[in-house]
Amino acid sequence: MPVSGASLFPRGGRASARARREEAGRRGSRMSSLCHTSAVMVVFMALAVSVGAEQLEEKSCDVIGDESSESQTERALLKKLEPLSQMRFNVTVEKGKTENYIYHFRVCREVNSSQHDFGGLVQTDRQGRRTTVIGRINETQVFNGSDWIMLIYKGGDSYGSHCSGEKRRAVIMISCKRGVIASSFSIISEEREKEQECFYLFEMDSSLACPAEDSHLSVGSILLITFASLIAVYIIGGFLYQRLVVGAKGMEQFPHFAFWQDLGNLVADGCDFVCRSKPRNAPAAYRGVGDDQLGEESEERDDHLLPM
Fold it and tell me: What predicted TM-score, i.e. pTM, was given to this entire model?
């Protein structure tokens, strides 16, 4: 039975519609996966930006006074201490049952950047969990000596009944110790019995406080190195020449062996002449058998052997 052309078009139309729906579904799934990936990337980028912004928000040391009044020495010292800025230092102090503290310290950075209190050295009461800022990095003083650097944080929280209620301050003495970037952070004392100028004194060791080592060689060292190098070249070069060119063997391979042998004999004779402790004409400590000890031989009488 012949099939009319009118009956083919509806079937083809239904198949193409199904194909379009499947293609649309595949495109929709691809779009959803792309959207999911883009959303994840956006979240990661936002986290990275927030972390970077938080790091940028960290305050650094601000020397007391106008920026124009800061000396080159102060800027150089703060630059020198930058390797310590990423470290945190803690020390625990227990004095009986009433005083139990933890001191937190950072070099030119806030101990807790989220509070934005500029606290560079903070005291925490382990019993009441109360926090007291001992010194702030926005009121910094720094100076040094031959093998030490002193860092002072001022503008801490006010005293209660001590020191006329003035603001606390922390003095950190950084002493030279080669081979370590930072160690031995500890509290020395707290001076609070005065009317004014009270302070907390801390100390730590660091190679950053050490003076630069002079690496220049002295004239004597240069001459000694040069002389030793020449001797080495003379011995090695002469040995190779005697062995490969002249064809010497044994001790003869040493350059100018006969000259050095004669020189050694002359030196020995000179030492014997200068350093002898007895006269030259003194008899020897031992007696050998020599011609001078045999005496004169008796003249043999052989006349009787001659013919008469």
Answer: 0.55
